[in-house]
Amino acid sequence: MTRAVSILVAGLLLNPLSHAASLYYTISTPDTAIGLSWHAFGGISHAKLTGVTGEVALNPANEMDNRVKVTIPVTTLIASNNLLTYQLKSSMFFDAPRYPNIVFTSSRIVAQGNGNFRIFGSLSVKDVQRPVILEATMEEHDRTAQRDERIALHAMTTISRSAYHMDRFTALVDDTVTIKIDIQAEASHVP
C-alpha cells in the first residue's frame, strides 16, 4: 500500500501540469482600445479610450493564479464630437485633471470553456472603486519566427455611471454605460 502511495505521489510531483507556471503577457498599447457606449438624447453615443497599459497572467493549472491589471489614461478619451470629449474629461464626468487614470484589477478569472472566461474584479474611476464582472473571450495566436506569442482578449460589461459619481444630465442621458474591451497582449518573461 505504501508503495502505491509513493508511486502516486511521485507521479503527481512529476506531472508537468501540476507544475505549470503562469504565462505572462504585456498589453500591446497601440493594439488595445476601450469603447464606451450609452443612450443619450434618443440615440447612442460613443467614446474611445486608448493608451492602455497593463499585464495579463494565465496559469492553465491553477485559475487562482490568473490575473489582469489594466490602466487607462483618461486624457486619451475621444468622443463623437469635441464638446462631448471636453465634457467627459471635465469635472462633470471623469475629471481627468484630478483623476488621470481608470484602473481595472481582476480578483479571479474563471474559465467557462471554449475560450470563454468570466473575469471578476474591481474598477476604479475617479475616487470610487466598485466590483465588476466582465464576460470575455480569448484568442491565442501561435508563435512565429517574426512575432512572440500573442493573445487577444475581448470583454464586455455594463456599469452604472452614477455609481462612479457621474450623474449629470440624468434626464437626457441613460445611467447604463456599456464597456467593450479589445486587448492585444504579447508574451513576456517578467512575472
From TrEMBL:
Ranges of residues in domain Lipid/polyisoprenoid-binding YceI-like: 24-186
Protein origin, superkingdom: Bacteria
Keyword set, alphabetical order: Signal
Pfam families hit by this protein: YceI
Signal peptide range: 1-20
Alphabetized SMART domains for the sequence: YceI (SM00867)
InterPro entries: Lipid/polyisoprenoid-bd_YceI (IPR007372), TTHA0802/YceI-like_sf (IPR036761)
Protein name from the UniProt record: YceI family protein
Organism: Pantoea ananas (Erwinia uredovora)
